[in-house]
Amino acid sequence: MPGFELFGDKERAAVNNVLETGVLMRYGFEGMRNGQCKAKELEKALSVRMQVKHAQLVSSGTAALTVALASAGIGAGDEVIIPTFTFVASFESILALGAIPILVDIDDTLTLDPSAVEKAITKKTKVVMPVHMCGSMADLKALKALCEKYDLLLLEDACQAIGGTFDGKPLGSYGDLGCFSFDYVKTITCGEGGAIISNNEKYIRNADHYSDHGHDHVGNDRGAETHPFLGYNYRISELNAAVGCAQIQRLDEFLAIQKRNYSVLRSALESVPGITFRRVPEGGEESYAFLNFYLPTEEKAKAVHKNLGTAGVDACFYWYDNNWHYYRKWEHLTEKKSLGKLPNEVVTQLPDYSQSDFSKSDHWMGRAISCLIKLGWSEDEVQKRAATMKEILEHV
Ligand SMILES: Cc1ncc(COP(=O)(O)O)c(C=O)c1O
Prior knowledge:
By secondary structure, this protein is α/β, with parallel strands linked by helices. It is 37% helix and 14% strand. The chain is built from 14 helices and 14 strands. The chain has helices spanning 9-21, 38-49, 61-71, 89-95, 114-120, 140-150, 201-210, 238-249, 251-269, 298-310, 331-334, 344-349, 359-365, 379-394; strands at residues 54-58, 79-83, 100-104, 125-128, 153-157, 165-166, 169-170, 177-181, 194-198, 276-277, 284-285, 290-294, 316-317, 368-372. A hairpin with a 2-residue loop joins strand 6 (165-166) and strand 7 (169-170). The structure holds pyridoxal-5'-phosphate. The site of pyridoxal-5'-phosphate has 13 residues, from helix 3.
């Protein structure tokens, strides 16, 4: 998945362009920057590539989620539905606003189960946040229909699936708002960075102001700008944006490599009895960032994971036992461990997840293995990896 595998002259040249002007900040310093703003350049490129009207860069994918929620007016006590299988950033971004993360079961897509989403909707629900984990997507059609029925926002976390599509639209562009991460291990990277995309001008204007202390960005004198509302600092730097400008030009090249490597592994495993693959919802095309498959039992999945590691097949994940991505290991959330006092709304409204029944999620996650697709593999390496994986899976 990571674009960092293929850094080259384009990235270096873009960073040097910034160092030559000396303007490392995206706002202000108009006299010095000679018209150059890498952040704006990347926003333009991203909105064109993602077929949306607007894009706003921020400092990380986590920041993108927080800013996206804030820009749509989400605040204390509002409920946001997220899947049990995601990255901790999902609930962090929601809690940062005093809003309430409502965990909901996943299905064989490894993303939100639309029927579980519908059951979780209450009068306080404001947002459904599908997370397109490991290169593939949620059933966006079903989720959009629910959002329309209950008047909710659809916010896509496409951080792990940039380049995938649904109904011909780039992931992130199907909902009301979409978020990307450009951290160091994403398909394209800025080192650190993130983005919000939307066709809604108001949300993106809000995101622009909110991510820079509420500055209205009117005129050329930063000190004279007014602040229509409170904000924070979630700005990206020009150096980070410069790397992204080079990387976005290479996105399609990276996606083609991912797809080629994925296809070799997938066709090797397809004939192994008992192996099934993650369901991609009708109308979807993966980004091929991971190959995700199911073993018939939890015991077999554990054994396969262990044997892959022993055989040197790296970057294959058994998320069920992983500390980052699955609710089972999120004691800090379950036990509401916080350095300072949490907002009252969070204290009183956050469900007691230690008592929740997520056995439907366990059913899928306990048997799922996700193997990262790297860009730097030679043809020979992919073939060898495919043969080793097949051999291991056939003998468990
Ligand atoms: C699904 C998902 N959402 C959000 C994030 C947060 O992105 P960042 O690391 O840029 O804050 C990540 C990062 O791994 C992620 O995987």
